[in-house]
Design goal:
Layout (H helix, E strand, L loop, with lengths): L8 E5 L15 E3 L2 E6 L3 H14 L3 E7 H6 L8 E7 L1 H10 L9 E8 L2 E7 L1 H7 L9 H16 L2
Helix pairs in contact: 1-5
Length: 159
């Protein structure tokens, strides 16, 4: 079995944080460290807009994974589901110097998936990641990362 490679695991170059928001209102729900939002736009549309916003901000898109296409390779089906891995090597390096274990969560990820008639977007909260990896006391720009993610997703959803 191939873990990586093939047509559904496309490696480009990226890495920082991810954010999601719903169209029309900023109604972000968080549960167990994952922030989620919903929209009526398609998975393809949201993924394309997010990637454009990420690149427009000078961040790197390291990879885009199509979970549905991967499922099809074994004869299974999933609702459309895409994972975007992206970020900033400068910020990621700074975070890992503060606490090496955060490397398991970097680059940060943005998940876009279809749930019935709704498309959802989710990501791990920077505050959750800071707590998970005991980054308290380090000079980590959590507020700036959170704000940047907010602007990135709002730009994608309101574009």
């Amino acid at each position: 079995m191939k873990w990586f490679g093939g047509p559904v695991f496309q490696t480009t170059l990226t890495g920082l944080s991810v954010f999601a928001i719903s169209i029309g209102s900023v109604d972000l729900g968080a549960q167990d460290g994952m922030v989620t939002a919903a929209t009526e736009m398609s998975v393809d549309s949201i993924e394309n807009r997010l990637v454009a916003q990420i690149r427009a901000r000078g961040l790197v898109v390291f990879s885009q994974i199509d979970h549905g296409a991967n499922a099809a390779t074994i004869g299974q089906t999933l609702q459309p589901m895409r994972l975007i891995l992206f970020g900033s090597p400068a910020v990621g390096t700074r975070l890992m110097k503060c606490g090496a274990s955060i490397g398991i969560d970097l680059p940060l990820k943005l998940l876009v998936w279809r749930d019935g008639e709704t498309t959802k977007v989710g990501y791990n909260s920077p505050t959750y990641l800071s707590e998970r990896h005991s980054l308290e006391g380090c000079e980590v720009p959590l507020a700036a990362i959170t704000e940047a993610m907010d602007e990135l997703v709002q730009g994608a959803l309101n574009n």
